[in-house]
Amino acid sequence: YVRFHLISPLIQQSAVNVVLFDTFVNILVHNLGEPAYEADVAQLEYKLVAGEHGLVIRVKGFNHKLPLLFQLIIDYLSDFSFTPAVFEMITEQLKKTYFNILIKPETLAKDVRLLILEHGRWSMIDKYQTLMNGLSIASLSAFVKAFKSQLFVEGLVQGNFTS
Q1: 163 located within any domain
Q2: pLDDT of 28-49, one tens digit each?
Q3: What is the mean pLDDT of the chain?
Q4: The pTM is what?
């Protein structure tokens, strides 16, 4: 079991950055779908989660091939690229996801409660409005470059691994 948290102070600076980060993680997951399929068949599991303070990478499975899967994820992260069609598809999906959160009273109430309790949190309404105002491909590219330049990493490795 390998878990790394790539933390960046850039994410919580604005609602635009939070939305750009969500878009970035979703495109990264989309890009990894095909190359990581063989790892899935080999019973290796991976998950990329857009956390509040950064990207959480979780990988688990048999230890002899786990580093290859982790390296694949890191390679796609470091050489991040996307097409305008994928960008449009992911932003449309995010619009639907944000809207579905807003129309459910229990998730909206949770969002409002956390907005009150947590300093520097952006509401789902802010994120949805930001997305509806439109994002540009150039802003995503600039955000990804800045994100990768301001990273702090925390990691945990458990299991049958050598140091």
Answers
A1: no
A2: 999 998 888 888 778 889 999 9
A3: 91
A4: 0.91
Amino acid making up residue 137: I
User: Beta-carbon neighbour count of residue 128 at 10 Å?
Assistant: 19
138 vs 151: CA distance, rounded Å: 21
Tokens 């050489």 label which residue?
79
> Which residue, chain included where needed, has tokens 């140091």?
163
Domain count, the chain: 1
- Written as six digits, the tokens of 101 are 């959160």
Q: Give the angle 78-26-59 at the CA atoms, nearest 5°.
A: 65
DSSP 14: -
Q: Residue 27: give the domain boundaries.
A: 2-157
87 in a domain, yes or no? yes
- Residue 162 inside a domain? The answer is no
Give the whole-angstrom CA distance, residue 73 versus residue 32: 7
* Nearest-angstrom CA–CA distance, 1 and 157: 6
- Residue 111: name the closest of 131, 130, 125 by CA: 125
Q: Which two tokens stand for residue 28?
A: 């990264």
Torsion of CA 100, 105, 106, 110, to 10 degrees: 90
Q: What is the CATH number of the domain that holds 34?
A: 3.30.830.10
Q: E strand or H helix at 73, and its extent?
A: helix 66-78
DSSP-derived secondary structure letter, 56? E
